[in-house]
């Protein structure tokens, strides 16, 4: 079939990660070739191993996920052919590598496990019937996953700035110092004025209190009549 699988072109969170990637779900591609008993698989292979991949003759020969490191390919996401019809309500996006439980898988059942390396990978859809393959799409273009940065590749030294940036930073720092000094000076003057005002008010109160309660010296009093010499 002429259809080529692809990663969605629209903005999508986690479209490609270190272990997964998203695919557009093909619609109306297998209608003329599939019946109700058929299933559609996704074949995942390393980009340099597509030429040697051979479609399995039956479901029993489907390469499992755990053989990817040695066989360089596997098949996953088995779905009924009705899932890919034009009117199917299925999600428009398929995610490859989303099943973390596949790491410990001990059976031969198909599994959609995390991809073990950045790849690149190529994928195709394969229509399987009771008697083997019936139709398939073309291989996708190579899909390269994200790489995690090694701690040894991170430069601990700060990035050197140009002379213009250094001058600009120095000017901004100087302006900040001048502004801080002005604010502190204004606050200091206000506090000092408030303290002086309180001292003046207290002194005036003391002086007024002194004048109000001042008692003049007593005048000599006449002696009683029996006390004259």
TrEMBL record:
One of its GO terms (cellular component) is membrane. The chain crosses the membrane at residues 165-187. Keywords: Membrane, Transmembrane, Transmembrane helix. PANTHER family: UROPLAKIN III, UROPLAKIN-3B. This is UPK3B protein. It comes from Sakesphorus luctuosus.
């Amino acid at each position: 079939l002429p259809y080529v699988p692809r990663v969605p072109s629209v903005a999508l969170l986690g479209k490609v990660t270190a272990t997964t990637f998203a695919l557009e779900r093909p619609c109306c591609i297998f209608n003329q070739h599939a019946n109700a008993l058929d299933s559609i698989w996704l074949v995942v292979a390393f980009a340099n191993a597509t030429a040697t991949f051979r479609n399995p003759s039956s479901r029993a020969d489907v390469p499992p996920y755990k053989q990817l490191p040695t066989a360089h390919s596997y098949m996953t996401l088995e779905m009924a052919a009705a899932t890919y019809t034009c009117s199917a309500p299925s999600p428009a996006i398929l995610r490859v590598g989303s099943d973390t439980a596949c790491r410990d898988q001990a059976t031969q059942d198909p599994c959609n496990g995390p991809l073990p390396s950045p790849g690149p990978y190529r994928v195709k859809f394969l229509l399987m019937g009771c008697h083997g393959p019936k139709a398939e799409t073309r291989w996708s273009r190579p899909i390269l996953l994200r790489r995690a940065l090694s701690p040894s590749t991170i430069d601990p030294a700060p990035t050197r700035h140009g002379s213009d940036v250094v001058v600009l930073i120095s000017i901004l720092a100087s302006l900040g110092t001048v502004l801080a000094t002005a604010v502190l000076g204004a606050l200091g003057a206000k506090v000092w004025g408030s303290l002086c005002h309180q001292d003046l008010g207290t002194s005036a109160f003391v002086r007024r209190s002194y004048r109000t309660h001042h008692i003049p010296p007593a005048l000599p009093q006449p002696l009683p009549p029996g006390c004259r010499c």
